[in-house]
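Worked problem 6 (solution included).
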Amino acid sequence: MKNTVEIVETKYFNFAGSPDGMMLESGEKLGPITIAYETYGRLNEDRDNAVMVLHALSGDAHAAGFHKGEKNPGWWNDMIGPGKAFDTEKYFIICSNIIGGCMGSTGPSSLNEKTGRPYGLDFPHITISDMVNAQKYLLDYLGIKKLLSVAGGSMGGMQVLQWVSSYPERILSAIPMATALKHSPQQIALNEVGRQAVMSDPDWRDGNYYGSGQPERGLALARMIGHITYMSDESMENKFSRKLKNGGYNFSFKPEFEVEGYLHHRGDSFVKRFDANSYLYITKALDYFDLSSTDKFLPAGRKIDTRFLVIAFKSDWLYPSYQSREIVRMLKARRLDVTYCEINSTYGHDAFLLEFAEEARLVSHFLNRVYNNAKNK
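Solution. The predicted structure is:
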């Protein structure tokens, strides 16, 4: 396909070997660390066309193109490629799997060198800041001193904000979508229910299930809860309404409504590709995230020239638009260059993965402006 990144391979970067490791926000050290990552397009001679794309909770490094022998493209394939929003004929796109994950980067299911067994709950707690610090090691390895942009939605948006907070001198522009400066009590509560669903499954075995099979029922239930929050009332009505799978009531507790079947399918699919302990660690990292004070996010006296495009979606009730507007207010208080767009979508939180036409228009224009301004300096 002409405008599609074609066959891609996941690469691996190893760092923070013993005995040094990488210092975490918790005060513990983690190492050695492997980061799985993919790149699309080419890094130019000036090394100033790099864009880092950051994934959400269940995402991975495979953001675009196809892996050999697989039919499904990367999770943001409609946004990354020749002539697309993240134009691979102009930009060099990087996407890495976060630490704490289970898609090639070091996480709870990885081998602990000290014990010769998977970490399980011996894996240290990680934060969004730790994820970004690990990505900074990757950038150093790739020889990229400054990013043209960082972009991502949901947890990816939190990483965008953390990049600006931790390394503003390395970021020309930032595109946080459907995200927040901190989790509200409701968001924390929803994550806790998901964690309890996992930990209440007898097969969880206090996190020591490797070799015996993971807690599939608990993890599937957590994912079902999550999917309800990713959609909106209107999108569920449009997609399912009260349609029945077999045309009539079964008068049983087996799934009868199409929406029930959808949730079970989503849950069953998730357990085949995701690690339960990673789910626990990542959701906790989301809850720990808090850049809601100016001192944390944009401390006075620190030079920040980053330009922002903040995108929200009207039907998103998991990360409602008021949280994006809080980001904008804080940026404007620092007199930073910020554009805010609220897309009128019915898809709920999932909109950042579905509203490609409007997103592409906004992102393309914004990146072109940032790129051209940088070249003209």
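Discussion: The first strand starts at residue 11 and ends at 15.
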